[in-house]
Each structure stands twice: as C-alpha cells, then as structure tokens.
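Moderator note: this is an archived Q&A kept for reference. The question asked for a predicted structure of one protein chain; the sequence and the answer are reproduced below.
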Amino acid sequence: MTIDQPATVASPRIAPPPMWGPIEPAIHPQWTDVEERSIRWLTRHGLCADPVRRRRLVATRSFEWCARVAPNSTLESLQAFADWFYYGFILDDELFDNPGTGASPARVVPYLQRLLHLMNHPETAVAHDPLLTALRDLARRWRMIATADALRAGSTASRRGSSARRP
C-alpha cells in the first residue's frame, strides 16, 4: 500500500446493543400549556419583543425538554424551570453574544455580580432593566416553591458557573 491508496480494514460486523434506559420516558401532563405561558412571561418582562428572538426561543422547545426532565413536578415548578431556561438563552445572548457587552469583561462581570446578588436577595430594588426584573420575579417564585437546600445549591452552582472562563 502507498500513501495514495486508501487503507482497508477487515473487521467483523459488530451489532450495537439495543438502547436501554432504566427510566421510562415520560412528559408532564400539562406540558403544552408551558410554552405559551413562558413566552407571555418573557414578553411581559420586555425580553421577547423582537420577532427574531421570539422565533429563536420558540425553536429551542425548551418547555418540552423541561417537561421531559420533570414529568412529575407541579405545574408551578415546571413553569419556573422552563422560564429559567428561556431566560438563560436571553441572558447569554445579551451578555456574551451582544457586541456592546460581550467583548467587555469590565461590563459583564459587575452585571453578573448584580444578577447573583439579586438571586439571593429578590427583595432588592432594581432599576427598570428587563433582565433584572425578570430574574427578580424568578427568584421570588423559587422562594415559594423550593427548599432552602435547593436554593442554596442553585446559588452556589450559579456562582461557580459565573466564574468559569468562556472559550
């Protein structure tokens, strides 16, 4: 064989094993209600006015993923979960993909600090900033539905995640 000739490899045919999962697939019974409620929530907070952004958010089908991850949750918990996912996409777009802020750690880091503080202290007054008012609403809702341990774990994970370096 020369470098110009393709290599051939003789191997027996190996059949992959069938897919198996220990948990039966399930979806929350009210999953179809969640998407519209999330879009209304985002719109109410001024985060979904742009039709392009709205189409991109809807295309993620985050509500369905959340409903499959938490099929036995309450509707209130599922709604907060889905809203958080949609919020995360918007936050990423605004802070890291926006030429006005994405290239400037000097602007992004203090803003992330405000977000983290607000997650832990939703009683904090905020200026009219759609990202802050939406997060304050989420933080207040989480306090109504989550345990103290779950809130602490979420806060710790958020602090650790915000200090991670992006490529």
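Archived answer notes: The CA atoms of residues 52 and 167 lie 26 Å apart.
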